Here is the input.
Amino acid sequence: MAVGELARRLAVAAIGIPLSLLLIYLGGWPLGLALAALAALGAAELCDLALAAGVRPFAGLAAAIAAGVVVFTVEGPHWTDATPWIAGVVVLGALAAAAGSIWLRGSGGRPLDAGAITVYSGVLVGAGFACGMLLRNLDPASAATASWRGAALIAYPLAIIWSGDTAAYFAGTRWGRHKLLPSVSPKKSIEGAVAGLLMSVIAALIYGRLVFEGWFSLPIGPVMAAVGGALIGAAGQVGDLAESVMKREAGVKDSGRIFPGHGGVLDRFDSLVFALPVAWAWLALALPRLIPGLPWR
Here is the structure.
């Protein structure tokens, strides 16, 4: 890695990490607007990948769908409050994409592809970041208020994914011999993927013991913690591969250039777009059924 690129990466990390921690701690609209902006940029990047592959989706509309999906999780912090509004955003977006295909694409402009990718981009990226907001608000006492307890909820998948990514990188570099999916991501190895998944489980076990049990007094237990870590870690790896195959079809190295030395929003958050919904579903749906008296809605 060139010295200049390394310096840019370090500068982005030096600014981005403290800012991210502050927004996660604050929650509410500061975090919601940041996630909405990232979702809009990510959806637009996905449309740019489609454009490079020969399809002309409606990038602005996809960005609006993605941002709208996130915004209504701030207004309705519980998923049952947000669902009708999110459904409205998706339906209106689909109708707008179909209507736009008539006049702006026509029969020769691949209208089916243009409309489908527009809605797909907005929903995929928007739902991923929206689940980050829903995860932050799982504890009613911490919703929409500055709280380390609420921040700890969204930090759960972050710790698992980043631990797994680090282990996968170093294990793959040191011991990687067998390619995982060479046609999709030539550098990824089976050894790295296994090491990443194992580290995700270990990180979940540590997080469960220190945070869920030690801080929340929630007896999650090692089995539940390990299963959650495996699910979230696997989802993160699938998200990484999904972005890789899209970039390969588009013939590009990075999805964007918004983060100097790091690429675009999808390059940095592809794993989390998949992992955040899994983490939210795991905590919101699985744990209340298995652990009586869970204090979250």
Remarks:
- The chain is about 75% helix and 5% strand.
